[in-house]
Amino acid sequence: MVLTEKKQVLLDIIEDEDEKLTELLIALANEYNTSNQKYSSEEIQEFYKIRDAMLAHPEIGYSPKEAHNLIRNKK
């Protein structure tokens, strides 16, 4: 079973079940979800420096197609 099919099965289960099971599934999903990554203030400042450098020199940027070609050719 592929991921999209699994998600559809889960949606069907949630749709047909009561509030208690729905709340348990939400609690389980929240407990499992570890994608809430926190960034340190140093990392955030580095993001801002990179952004400011890119905005200061927009002529250095690449189109998406150019960027893909550079990545694929490892340049």
What does this structure look like?
The chain contains four helices and no strands. With 75 residues, the chain is mostly helical. The protein has two domains: 3-32; 41-72, no CATH class. The two termini are 38 Å apart.
Helix and strand arrangement:
Elements: H1 3-16, H2 19-32, H3 41-56, H4 64-72
Features:
mainly alpha; 0% strand; elongated
Tally of separate domains? 2
Distance between the termini: 38 Å
Q: Specify the overall morphology.
A: elongated
Q: State the share of residues found in helices, binned by percent.
A: over 70%
Number of alpha- plus pi-helical segments: 4
Task: Determine the structural class based on helices, strands and strand pairing.
Answer: mainly alpha
The topology string of helices and strands comes to HHHH
Mean pLDDT equals 81
| Gyration radius over CA | 22 Å
Low-confidence stretches: none
Count of strand segments: 0
- Biggest beta sheet summary: none
Share in β-strands: under 5%
Quick description:
The chain is mostly helical.
